[in-house]
Amino acid sequence: MSTRPVPLSIVALCLSGVLGCSGDKPSAPSPSPPTPEPVKPAAKPVPAMVLTATPDGSGVVRITGDDIMKFNVARIEVKAGEKVKLELKHIGKLAKEVMGHNLVVLTAGADTMAFAQAAVGAAESDYIPELGKAQIIAYTKLLGGGESDTIEFDLPGPGEYPFLCSYPGHAALMKGVLVAR
Questions:
Q1: pLDDT by residue (tens digit) across 18-71?
Q2: Taking phi first (over 0 means left), then psi (-120 to 50 degrees means alpha), and beta for anything else, what does residue 107 get?
Q3: Interior CA angle at 141 toward 135 and 146, to 5°?
Q4: Euclidean distance between CA atoms 148 and 80, whole angstroms
Q5: CATH topology of domain 50-180
């Protein structure tokens, strides 16, 4: 029996296990590259937080609230002595029984957290507590997703007036200050 020389390339493949030349067991297939993650659709953009809101050309300050318990403003600036017009629009989808929002403007120096705690027990009046009414300058109705309300009122004078959403648990995140100069 005569033997022929084995080309080096076949020897190299046998040694690397690609051809499975050991004779004992077939070699394991080489691992396949990982499958790339599917591309997820872009998230719906969240409205940007506006640090300060002022009246627009029609004299209205426009504020939004959403399903993640945020107002789009933390500060409202108006001219002292002029009628204040605020529009609150709930841009979320949830019903007011689940994620209701209102905007309550309180007197200067009012304790917003004490007011919010009193509001928890005032479901029958859309979370406007009888006990806290002396501290209220103005408030919108309680809104569900897609609803809006506009209020018009006068302030007692120049100063800083806190505002908040009085729906239970919302005042910690949904609050700000209305400044009249």
A1: 444 445 555 555 566 666 565 555 554 544 555 799 999 999 999 999 999 999
A2: beta
A3: 140
A4: 25
A5: Immunoglobulin-like (2.60.40)
